[in-house]
Write a structure and sequence with these properties.
Blueprint: E1 8-11, E2 19-21, H1 33-36, H2 41-47, E3 54-59, E4 63-70, H3 81-84, E5 87-91, E6 98-103, E7 111-117, E8 123-128, E9 135-143, E10 148-149, E11 156-164, H4 166-169, H5 180-187, E12 190-196, H6 205-212, E13 218-222, H7 230-247, E14 253-256, H8 265-283, E15 288-291, H9 314-332
Helix pairs in contact: 5-9, 6-7, 7-8
Length: 335
């Protein structure tokens, strides 16, 4: 490890006792290689961004050193590099996880070298990977002689699967663990898979077929913002849902319409399309739920919830998680 010390021993998290969550195929990609070949160039590039990826392990080391290179220099004008390209570090398990720090590459740089102090004794360490960047390489180091063990499983081992837009992917959270998906999973001590693809998840049926094959506790369908118009949303939303429910008829499904600070007649039409899919599912006895996106930012100071009227900041994601939590609680109480 560059800049390492003889008092440390390094390891590759992909080839060690550590466990990787939220990624596929044994590398730093959110979908397997076979699916990448069916995707557009833009969608495949987004799949290599590691939103929802986590690395977990147990150690008694009092320090953790990280060496990472991301695929692209952080350059988003409306999202902090700490969220787009950084790493979040936590100690502990489940809802009791304690935040211990965030590290990100310096402006104009792809590389990160940092050392994180850890508490004494055995503890679970969770590292959240970048939301809007890919990982070219990543290595950790712990104190020489310290233990390295696999973590205990999540309380809910079957992941919640989220499919949706740039908001689902985590734009524009200030830290990787501050997407609404990550917040909810942490509260319920659940694994999760983030299949949010900025501007490019448009209800393609091959994605529904892929999702239908995943083992999951529940599914969140949230791509309203990516549909180029209401006609596209109407043409794709119900078939996408049907494809999944035909293969997973007992799967709980939550549908969201898009959150914004202001709404037009066109926005309301889109909301009604999503709600129509929900009503179709309920009428046929499926375990379906719906949340109107207009409710996701709450009523007070809605304009404080986004960076641009659309993409949530941390407050916006917190309010989204607050709105979704009661539904998730009802779902998890039954599984």
């Amino acid at each position: 490890m560059a800049g390492g010390s003889t008092r440390l021993r390094d390891f590759d998290p992909l080839r060690s006792e550590a466990k990787v969550y939220g990624l596929a195929g044994g590398g730093y990609c959110r979908v397997p290689d076979g699916l990448l070949g069916r995707m557009s160039k833009e969608l495949a590039g987004l799949a290599r961004q590691t939103s929802g990826g986590r690395i977990r392990f147990v150690t008694d080391s009092d320090t953790l050193r990280v060496s990472m290179e991301v695929l692209n220099e952080p350059a988003m004008p409306h999202m902090p590099s700490s969220g787009s390209s950084g790493l979040d570090f936590f100690e502990g398990d489940g809802a009791d996880m304690k935040y211990i720090g965030t590290r990100q590459p310096a402006c104009g740089q792809k590389g990160l070298e940092a050392e994180i102090p850890l508490s004494e004794g055995d503890k679970t360490v969770t590292v959240y990977l970048p939301l809007y960047n890919g990982v070219r390489s990543l290595r950790f180091a712990i104190a020489r002689g310290a233990s390295l063990q696999a973590p205990l499983p999540y309380r809910h081992e079957k992941p919640v699967v989220f499919y949706g837009s740039s908001i689902t992917q985590g734009g524009c959270a200030s830290r990787p663990s501050n997407s609404y998906c990550a917040m909810l999973a942490k509260r319920f001590d659940s694994d999760f898979i983030n299949l949010g693809f900025s501007g490019n998840a448009k209800g393609e049926l091959y994605m529904a077929e892929y999702i239908a094959e995943l083992e999951m506790s529940c599914f969140v369908l949230d791509y309203d913002h990516n549909a180029p118009d209401a006609a596209h949303l109407r043409r794709t939303h119900l078939p996408f849902l049907q494809t999944i429910l035909e293969r997973r008829p007992r799967l709980p499904v939550l549908m969201l319409s898009r959150p914004d600070t202001k709404y037009s007649a066109a926005d309301n039409e889109r909301r009604d399309i999503v709600r129509d899919s929900y009503l179709w599912a309920k009428q046929r006895g499926y375990d379906a739920f719906f949340i109107d996106g207009a409710e996701l930012f709450g009523e007070k100071d809605r304009d404080c919830c986004t960076v641009d009227g659309c993409h949530p900041n941390d407050l916006g994601f917190y309010r989204m998680a607050q709105a979704v939590e009661p539904v998730m609680k009802a779902i998890f109480s039954r599984i």
